[in-house]
């Protein structure tokens, strides 16, 4: 895959100067896994306030060491010689070009100032006498425009003149970015805190030799850069005055939206309209009005306002509405209405973006003299978004007879709206009308037809529409490049009936087809669809194929990177996800400021920090999170996709129990129209986890705020709202408010008698929300359904309707979750036998994933949690049905085959039913296998550490025997000798002979984890620091003592007088034998050690684990 030169704003990528990715891991990201880590304390996530204070104090050695672009600039600087002749380039750890390139990428990050200095120093070093060779200098020159652009962004003409100009050839062609720097000579005056611009710029705009288009392009760049430099409104008057003077020098000012040069200014116009303080839009417009009155006419300012409206309608719709308000005020002041149909169209589009639907109709009715055809599209979109089928139908049918209306664009809008309303018959009728009017259907219309058939589970119709679409493509009536748009729908049709392997094969076939040079599937949509199924199917194989296809087709967009990083995080491949995030930052148009990449990276670091057991490494991850959070808080993140980044910042705050800070991140988003339900869900989940009276009230407050914003709300969020209502009403036998909301929600999904004909919810949407709907019904049933027959009947009827609407074919993405939830509600409703059958279907889906997942692959945490919940539910169902022991043994056997780890509570439930005195030899083998997997997956850390310390103790006694008698050591170290099973008189004969006992002891110490070991000198003077037990346990899995005792008894029963069987079992289950030996023998030794401590202390009453240091001091005094 290629890495483009970073380009921003007006810079264009140079296809001839691309470089391959150069990622150099400096240090291992993960802690060594050969030795366990002691968890001295539980590290909680830092709040944003704590991060701000802690991040600066984290030593550089603890900072997360990642590939080269994240090296601190101070490290880069240290690799550049002070003089070119002081150190030969070949002696540098990295080449001078590598350092230069790293610095360029960091110029957009949090260490931009230091990186900028390194970039300049590396350029000087390369071009100094005796510096880089000719080929290296040529590579530097490929990045000349990038360096100049960075200088422009920093307003540093002095550096350009001092460092770059001497290295440039005279008489060469001048690039656009160089022309900008030479013309305007941007230079920041630090004393005045302002940017000085060359007075000779007017000469450029007066020059007759420069084409008009180039002049407008340069003026647009000047205006944008000047506004970015200013930072507040104090310079607005001078900036706008100069802009108008320059514009007049080019020619007559024309702000009509038909001007071909006007689009060049739109980025700058968005900066002009942007409020310097929140919601202070009108004040800048008043200042602009005064400046225009001095330099131009009223009509020109009026046309300029229309330009501002068009420039901001998509990015900042609020600014468009304020510009309309200014035009309205001017019309009243001058008794002349200058508002046009274009203005009204822009205003209606702004209200549509803001989801202020009543205002659209209001302004459209208020100004009938400003109506035009383009406003019809907006009205149709409004009816489609509000799902007002009656109004949509009336408005569309009213268009017939109006000249050439309706046109293709109107058909497209209406047909897409009809899909969401489940009106397949009407869509087919519209398609027939198109053919009668000799209009050619487009790809979106065929997409509507296929989705409507998918909603009704009509696979034959889906195939028929695909064939029709393919014929249109072959006859060139539809462009070949649009074929990829319908690939996700084709795969969705397969997903309704396919099993996991069939689905993976179908996606792989699509990817293979996309790699064919003659294929029309070289599109981002194909890669994104493949990545989506990789995540839902937990398929690393499919991901790798998608990744390879994206590399070969050069389709690594921000969306592809985001989906890839998110997948790797979901699979627990955190290190690889972080490396890919860095690669994505490098390839971004805004390196290290891309909000979409930041959001995926922040999620990965947050989950990684929560998962890692190593506290030192956890601190390093929190430090990296702090770097990103500080950059976001400083506004150094792109506006595109900022809502996703703010949501991830909010999630991090919620992980630190700071909901108020989390809400502030969401409130800070300037484009609230981009916030949808999923951005608020983390807040609802947080308050739901601590469901009490106050948190329930907070959930209802958030819900009310979303309703006021006309936010679309689904069953996923209604679940939390209904739970909050039940909680507030005290779980009474009847809950009027909760039931009052339950009925319209079920009606919305067509699950009541009243809503049976409701087609506003598609089959796909119903499938997606089905699990949440079942959760709502279950909560109502368990809360008060048993005491309220009416509610119980309502729930059961809704459940029957849901199953009827879903049919037998469920999309593979949602099967596991839906079957699991259905089994839960059947169990709660008193039908355990039915629940077992449904749960078995869910278990089959889980087993398909485990069966095809390599044993070496890490098991995703979320999937393990869901599977453990399913196992726990299965055990409860088997108990309710009084099933025989063999059913529980079958569960253990499945776990053994698939090597799936499960938590201790679930293991305890299974053992209670399986372990018994009448157990067969075959059942005993199954149990031993389950225990082995359970202990291996739990790392066996306590046992391994105990063995390592025992080895150190034996060597320690051997070392001490060179200076002390065996009798003396047996007396002084009596307690430790009993604990570790050592006799000073015989210990030497049990160990391999060595010539240097001191060196042998040091070698044993080196085998210990760093968090446990002590220096040799400390061990000799204070041996109790290492040898006293009672450390906090950091073993993940441990057996219930009762079950361990029972296993020991069973081992004695089956292995009595049968040594071959004993040896065979030990070879098969070594970890289990080690654990049980510890449990039986070493537990006794530990108890004896505790009694010895009690004797020495004269009756020590406090907990030994809580006061380990006091025990260490006591034993040190005794052993001297």
TrEMBL record:
Q: Write out the entry's keywords from A to Z.
A: mRNA processing, mRNA splicing, Repeat
BP-aspect Gene Ontology terms: RNA splicing
Question: In which domain of life is the source organism classified?
Answer: Eukaryota
- Tell me which InterPro entries the record gives: TPR-like_helical_dom_sf
Q: What is this protein called?
A: Mitochondrial group I intron splicing factor CCM1
Q: Which organism is it from?
A: Australozyma saopauloensis
């Amino acid at each position: 895959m290629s890495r483009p030169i970073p380009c921003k704003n007006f810079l264009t990528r140079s296809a001839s100067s691309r470089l391959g990715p150069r990622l150099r891991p400096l240090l291992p990201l993960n802690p060594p896994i050969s030795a366990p880590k002691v968890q001295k304390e539980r590290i909680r996530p830092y709040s944003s306030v704590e991060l701000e204070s802690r991040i600066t104090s984290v030593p550089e050695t603890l900072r997360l060491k990642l590939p080269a672009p994240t090296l601190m600039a101070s490290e880069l600087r240290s690799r550049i010689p002070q003089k070119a002749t002081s150190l030969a380039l070949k002696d540098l750890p990295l080449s001078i070009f590598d350092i230069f390139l790293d610095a360029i990428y960091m110029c957009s990050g949090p260490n931009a100032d230091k990186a900028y200095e390194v970039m300049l120093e590396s350029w000087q070093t390369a071009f100094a006498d005796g510096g880089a060779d000719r080929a290296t200098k040529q590579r530097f020159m490929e990045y000349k425009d990038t360096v100049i652009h960075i200088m422009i962004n920093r307003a540093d003409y002095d550096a350009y003149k001092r460092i770059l100009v001497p290295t440039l050839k005279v008489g060469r062609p001048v690039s656009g970015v160089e022309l900008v720097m030479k013309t305007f000579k941007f230079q920041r005056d630090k004393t005045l805190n302002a940017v000085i611009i060359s007075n000779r710029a007017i000469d450029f705009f007066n020059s007759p030799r420069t084409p008009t288009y180039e002049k407008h392009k340069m003026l647009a760049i000047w205006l944008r850069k000047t506004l970015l430099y200013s930072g507040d409104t104090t310079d607005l008057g001078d900036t706008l005055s100069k802009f108008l003077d320059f514009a007049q020098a080019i020619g007559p000012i024309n702000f009509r939206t038909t001007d071909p040069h006007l689009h060049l200014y739109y980025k700058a116009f968005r900066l002009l309209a942007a409020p310097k303080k929140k919601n202070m839009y009108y004040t800048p417009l008043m200042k602009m009005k005064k400046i225009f009155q001095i330099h131009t006419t009223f009509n020109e300012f009026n046309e300029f306002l229309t330009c501002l409206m068009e420039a901001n309608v998509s990015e900042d719709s609020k600014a468009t509405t304020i510009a309309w308000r200014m035009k309205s005020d001017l019309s009243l002041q001058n008794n002349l209405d200058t508002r046009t149909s274009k203005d009204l169209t822009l205003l209606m589009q702004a209200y549509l973006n803001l989801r202020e639907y009543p205002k659209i109709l209001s302004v459209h009715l208020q100004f009938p003299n400003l109506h035009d055809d383009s406003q019809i599209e907006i009205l149709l979109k409004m009816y489609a978004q509000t799902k007002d089928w009656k109004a949509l139908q009336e408005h569309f049918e009213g268009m017939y007879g109006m000249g050439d209306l309706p046109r293709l664009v109107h058909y497209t809008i209406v047909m897409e709206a009809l899909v969401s309303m489940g009106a397949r018959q009407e869509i087919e009728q519209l398609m027939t009308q198109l053919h009668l009017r000799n209009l050619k259907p487009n790809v979106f219309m065929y997409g509507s037809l296929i989705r409507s058939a998918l909603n009704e589970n009509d696979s034959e119709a889906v195939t028929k529409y695909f064939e029709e679409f393919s014929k249109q493509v072959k006859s060139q009536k539809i462009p070949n490049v649009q074929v990829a748009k319908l690939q996700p729908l084709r795969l969705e049709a397969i997903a309704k009936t396919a099993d996991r392997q069939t689905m993976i094969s179908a996606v792989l076939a699509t990817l293979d087809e996309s790699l064919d040079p003659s294929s029309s599937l070289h599109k981002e949509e194909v890669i994104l669809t493949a990545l989506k199924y990789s995540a839902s199917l937990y398929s690393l194989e499919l991901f790798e194929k998608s990744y390879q296809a994206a590399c070969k087709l050069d389709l690594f967009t921000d969306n592809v990177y985001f989906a890839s990083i998110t997948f790797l995080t979901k699979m627990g491949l955190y290190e690889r996800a972080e490396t890919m995030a860095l690669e994505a930052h490098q390839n971004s148009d805004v390196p290290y400021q891309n909000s979409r990449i930041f959001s995926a990276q922040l999620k990965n670091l947050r989950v990684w920090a929560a998962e890692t057991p190593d506290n030192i490494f956890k601190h390093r991850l929190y430090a990296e999170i702090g770097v990103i959070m500080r950059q976001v808080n400083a506004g150094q993140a792109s506006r595109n996709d900022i809502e996703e980044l703010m949501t991830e910042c909010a999630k991090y705050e919620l992980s630190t129990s700071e909901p108020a800070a989390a809400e502030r991140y969401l409130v800070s988003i300037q484009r609230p129209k981009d916030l949808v339900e999923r951005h608020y869900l983390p807040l609802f989940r947080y308050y739901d986890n601590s469901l009490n009276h106050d948190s329930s009230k907070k959930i209802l407050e958030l819900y009310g705020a979303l309703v006021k914003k006309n936010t679309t709300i689904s069953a996923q969020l209604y679940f939390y709202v209904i739970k909050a209502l039940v909680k507030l009403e005290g779980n009474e036998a009847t809950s009027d408010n909760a039931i009052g909301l339950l009925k319209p929600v079920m009606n919305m999904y067509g699950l009541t008698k009243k809503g049976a004909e409701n087609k506003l919810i598609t089959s796909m949407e119903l499938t997606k929300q089905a699990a949440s709907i079942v959760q709502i019904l279950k909560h109502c049933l368990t809360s008060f359904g048993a005491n309220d027959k009416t509610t119980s009947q309502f729930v059961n009827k809704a459940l029957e309707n849901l199953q009827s609407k879903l049919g037998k074919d469920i999309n593979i993405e949602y099967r596991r979750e839906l079957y699991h939830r259905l089994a839960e509600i059947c169990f709660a409703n008193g039908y355990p036998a039915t629940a077992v059958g449904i749960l078995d279907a869910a278990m089959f889906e889980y087993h398909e994933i485990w069966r095809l997942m390599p044993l070496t692959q890490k098991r995703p945490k979320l999937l393990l949690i869901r599977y453990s919940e399913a196992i726990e539910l299965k055990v409860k169902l088997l108990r309710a049905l009084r099933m025989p022991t063999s059913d529980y043994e079958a569960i253990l056997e499945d776990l053994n085959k698939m090597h799936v780890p499960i938590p201790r509570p679930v293991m305890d439930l299974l053992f209670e039913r399986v372990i018994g005195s009448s157990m067969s030899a075959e059942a005993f083998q199954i149990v031993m296998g389950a225990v082995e997997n359970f202990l291996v997956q739990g790392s066996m850390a306590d046992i391994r550490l105990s063995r390592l310390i025992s080895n150190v103790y034996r060597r320690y006694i051997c070392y001490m025997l060179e200076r002390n008698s065996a009798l003396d050591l047996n007396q002084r170290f009596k307690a430790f000798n009993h604990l570790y099973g050592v006799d000073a008189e015989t210990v030497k004969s049990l160990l391999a002979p060595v010539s240097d006992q001191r060196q042998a002891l040091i070698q044993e110490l080196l085998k210990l984890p760093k968090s446990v070991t002590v220096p040799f000198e400390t061990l000799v003077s204070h041996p109790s620091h290492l040898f006293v037990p009672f450390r906090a346990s950091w073993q993940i899995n441990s057996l219930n003592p009762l079950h361990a005792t029972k296993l020991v008894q069973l081992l004695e029963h089956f292995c009595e007088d049968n040594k071959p069987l004993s040896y065979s079992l030990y070879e098969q289950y070594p970890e289990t034998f080690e654990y049980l030996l510890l449990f039986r023998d070493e537990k006794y030794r530990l108890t004896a050690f505790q009694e010895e401590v009690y004797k020495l202390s004269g009756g020590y009453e406090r907990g030994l684990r809580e006061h380990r240091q006091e025990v260490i001091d006591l034993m040190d005094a005794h052993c001297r």
